[in-house]
Amino acid sequence: MSKNTMKHLAIIMDGNGRWATKRGLSRTKGHEAGAETIRDITTYCAANPNIQTATFYAFSTENWKRPKLEVEFLMKLLDRYLQKELETYQRHNIRFLAIGDTEAFSAPLRKRIRLTQELTQNNTNLTQILALNYGGRAEITSAVNRLIKEGKQHISEEDISGALQTPYSDIDLLIRTSGEERISNFLLWQISYSELYFTPTLWPDFTSKELAEIIKNFEQRTRRFGGVK
Ligand code: IPE
Ligand code: IPE
Ligand code: MG
User: Fold this and answer.
1) Ligand 1 test: best mutation among 12, 18, 41, 206, most atoms within 8 Å of CB?
2) Which residue among 89, 107, 187, 199 sits deepest, i.e. has the most Cβ atoms within 10 Å of its Cβ?
3) Are 96 and 65 in contact (CB under 8 A)?
4) Domain locations in the chain as residue ranges
5) The domain 8-136+171-219 is classified under which CATH number: 3.30.980.10, 3.40.1180.10, 3.40.50.1980, 2.60.40.10?
6) pLDDT digits (tens, 9 = 90+) for 75-124
7) Which pLDDT tens digit goes with each residue over 13-41?
8) What DSSP string runs through 72-94?
9) Does any ligand 2 atom lie closer than 6 A to the CB of residue 180?
10) Ligand 1 in contact with 14 (CB < 6 A)?
């Protein structure tokens, strides 16, 4: 008998660069391999009747610090990914949503993001959220500014939850690959009571088999939410 049901899974996909370097390849090859993993994990989540939302950290507000060529490659890869995966979204009834400040992206990429969101908006099996130019602090700050603009005199936790860009739901489980054990400015507000799981597996090597094991582990954990159990 499982103790917990996982509705919302979040993943910090880390280790693409190290995966490639270990093989004597350029970091970009690691990102390409990582994109394949996103597809596999997303379709696995779509086939799991409990999981409603899977949120993937693809590009942080801090990732602009990387070499220009790597950033450009990531933008091109994202465009290619969305174009190629439209078929996957439709076949598996997956809705695509972007969070983060995509205004900083090129006009064609913004258009691709908008179009993919529109074309998949009625899909109901799973919502796949890609965090793109996303930062947890930036998300909370814009939520607060939005509430101020609306004239709120007093701001409650529910107000902030409702004003966030991420369609609000607490994250049940947050996984980070590659052995790093930090949050790197991901969903700060939403993970207050998430279960955390860190695996040494580099993202391109991450499989649905490992995910299934991690979910089993999650299902057996005792979540107390501050109470007594
Ligand atoms: C994660 O892999 C992908 C992005 C942050 C875009 P990294 O590129 O961070 O890989 P490592 O951490 O350098 O191995
Ligand atoms: C976090 O990975 C961001 C994404 C996975 C998109 P990073 O590789 O950028 O994080 P740090 O710099 O190691 O904390
Ligand atoms: Mg990294």
Assistant:
1) 18
2) 187
3) no
4) 8-136+171-219
5) 3.40.1180.10
6) 999 999 999 999 999 999 999 999 999 999 999 999 999 999 999 999 99
7) 999 999 999 999 999 999 999 999 999 99
8) HHHHHHHHHHHHHHHHHHHHTTE
9) yes
10) yes
Q: In what order do the strands lie in the sheet with 195-198?
A: 94-99, 126-134, 53-60, 8-12, 173-176, 195-198
**Using a 6 Å cutoff on CB, does residue 204 contact ligand 1?**
no
pTM of the model: 0.97
Alpha-carbon torsion (187, 128, 46, 40), positive or negative: negative
Q: CA angle at residue 209 from 129 to 49, to 5 degrees?
A: 50
Cα separation of 1 and 96, whole Å?
32
Dist. CA 94 → ligand 2 center (Å): 26
DSSP 8-state symbol, 212: H
Centre of ligand 2 to C-alpha 7, Å, is: 24
